[in-house]
Amino acid sequence: MLPILDVAKKVGLTADDLMLFGPLAKLSWPTLHRLRAQGQKGKLVLVSAMTPTKYGEGKTTTSIGLVQGLARRGVKAMAALREPSLGPVFGAKGGGTGGGQAEIMPSARINLHCTGDMHAITAANNLLAALVDNAINFDQRRFKQVTWKRCIDMNDRFLRETVIGLGGSANGVPRQDGFDITAASEVMATLCLADGVKDLKARLGRLIVGIDKENKPVTAGDLNAVGAMAALLGDALLPNLAQTTEGVPTLVHGGPFANIAHGCNSVMATRAALSLADIVVTEAGFAFDLGGEKFLDLKCRMSGLWPSAVVLVVTARAMRAHGGDEPGLPSIERGFANVKRHLASIRGFGIEPVLSLNVFAQDTEEELALVEKLARAENVAVARNAGYLQGGAGSETIAAAVEEALKKPATPPRYTYELSDPFEQKVSSVAKKIYGAKGAELSGEAQKDMERLRKWGFGDLPVCMAKTHLSLSDDPAKQGAPTDFTVTVRQVRVSAGAGFLLALTGEILTMPGLPKVPAAYGLDLTEEGEVVGVH
Question: Is 237:200 a contact under the CB 8 Å cutoff?
């Protein structure tokens, strides 16, 4: 690792621009204001992927390898990526900083506590919950229903449903409650979409915490919670500067889940990176049907950002899994249908994709050649990427392909739907254009939800689809590129602070559980104070 000040110098930052956190740093407020005044000079590259499988496709590793490959080619490049959540780190997924020779450093520190952003978001969320119950304690007549949950940055299925306020009147009013994981908190989504302190406060004030006796929403602003929440989030709003394995500057900031929120790093980090570098590589969670679509329809629509290129990460073994998971080439050829569906979705936004073929040690030349042949048949640029094994040297080919794509004229933003479209049309547009479905239908409960939300004035908000990441459909068992299916929206909520309607399909958990053998079993601290076992 390089000293963080040496990393900062690569993009023109000095010690005066930073708040140091050991081997990491935060951009200071004066620095962010100066960069905002300078404007954005860089081009944005979005990295997404085909539908995930149990094998893992290496999207984050590809993002880091790509930015290292660009740097090796003499490009002033940066990455702008998400912060890992402690829940997956200790659960089934493990760390979220890449791997091999394409990793964000210091990996263990970023995976565990980073600079404390997750804890600040947890504290702000739970302060609001405490103020809600305090209001109930002193005025029980005000609330008809409480909708705001507490959160913790940990996988803990036993906190999904709780009862609080037991033990007598001194402990408050008993009611049923529950916890979300911090990455699923609306405070997380709100912070990541905020474009400064003023915007953050406005968004916090709109957070809906419950419903009053007149069936009207009660907000954080109504409870006078905004100032204190903003104070807790002051430092958490500042992007964190880290480095890749090869010392390339990287902003790591924010981490909303992509199956329950928009799955992208913060607007402020992306803007700052675009002011500092010529090419900025960012990513969105899960496959293009979740993170990619939300990056474009939500984050870009709200911020005015737009990528100049989209990289789709694919692997031969993921295609085999989507094609029946049988040995040999036919499974790979069948599984390419999943890739074709995502390519069509990207082109639907007016952007020509670049296919990054992530190479694993066990891949055969015959398998890789088949994927390249299938890609050429779709008239899409394809390049092999060996960033995990070789770092930037293994990613120069995909870096060159991205540079070539960036030479093409920029396309104006094109969204999946218009904000003026009815909610039912919005979800049907996403289902048809992105998932390949016949359309979408609302359950009776979802129709009632929308009737109430329209009365509250939220009918024109964009839509965030809460859907399984394991399939293009809302059924995780349907692999490949399913057809002839309808997406069912069973419930609709509003994330008023983030600024979108949340359409829930299938069974989406906002508080994950630990597996039978959690990754936590493999973590330890040495006598020298080094954390080991984070993967």
Answer: yes
pLDDT tens, residue by residue, 398-447: 999 999 999 999 889 999 999 999 999 999 999 999 999 999 999 999 99
Residue 535: which pLDDT band, with cuts at 50, 70 and 90?
Answer: confident
434, two tokens: 């992105």
Instruction: Please indicate, yes or no, if residue 522 is contained in any of the structural domains.
Output: no
Distances (CA, A) of 476 to 53, 167, 469, 470, 482: 11, 42, 7, 5, 11
Residues 6+ apart with CB under 8 A from 77: 67, 70, 71, 248, 277, 278, 279, 280, 281
One domain for residues 126 and 223: yes
Task: Indicate whether 146 and 14 sit together in one domain.
Answer: no
Kind plus residue range of the DSSP H or E element containing 231 = helix 226-233
160: in domain: yes
- Calculate the average pLDDT of the chain: 96
Range of the domain at 501: 423-505
Say if residue 108 is in the same domain as residue 132: no
Mean pLDDT of 345-349: 97
Q: How confident is the model at residue 139 (pLDDT cuts 50, 70, 90)?
A: confident
Domain-located, residue 191: yes
Structure tokens at 188: 């997380």
Q: Give the CATH number of the domain where residue 493 resides.
A: 3.10.410.10
pTM of the predicted protein model: 0.96
Give the separation between CA 163 and CA 165, rounded to whole angstroms: 7
> Does residue 198 sit in the same domain as residue 251?
no
Give the amino acid at 114: C
Task: Look at residues 452, 422, 459, 424 and name the one whose alpha carbon lies nearest to residue 147.
Answer: 452
Q: Within this chain, do residues 393 and 440 fall inside the same structural domain, yes or no?
A: no
Query: What is the distance of C-alpha 203 from the center of its chain?
Result: 19
Would you state the pLDDT for residue 509? 86
| DSSP annotation of 289 | I
State residue 178's pLDDT score.
97
Q: Are 523 and 484 in contact (CB under 8 A)?
A: no
In tens, the pLDDT along 409-420 reads: 988 999 999 999
Q: Which residue has the tokens 């053998």?
A: 517
SS3 assignment, position 98: strand
158 located within any domain: yes
- Same domain assignment for residues 226 and 251: no
Are 56 and 98 members of one domain? yes
Q: What are phi and psi of 440, to 5 degrees?
A: -135, 150
Number of domains making up the chain? 3
Same domain, 222 and 261: no
Rg (CA), the chain: 23
Candidates 233, 266, 250; CA nearest to 106 is 250
113 CB burial (10 A radius; 0-12, 13-18, 19+): middle
Looking up residue 255, the CATH number of its domain turns out to be: 3.40.50.300
- Tens of pLDDT, residue by residue over 479-534, are 999 999 999 999 999 999 999 999 999 988 899 999 999 999 999 999 999 999 99
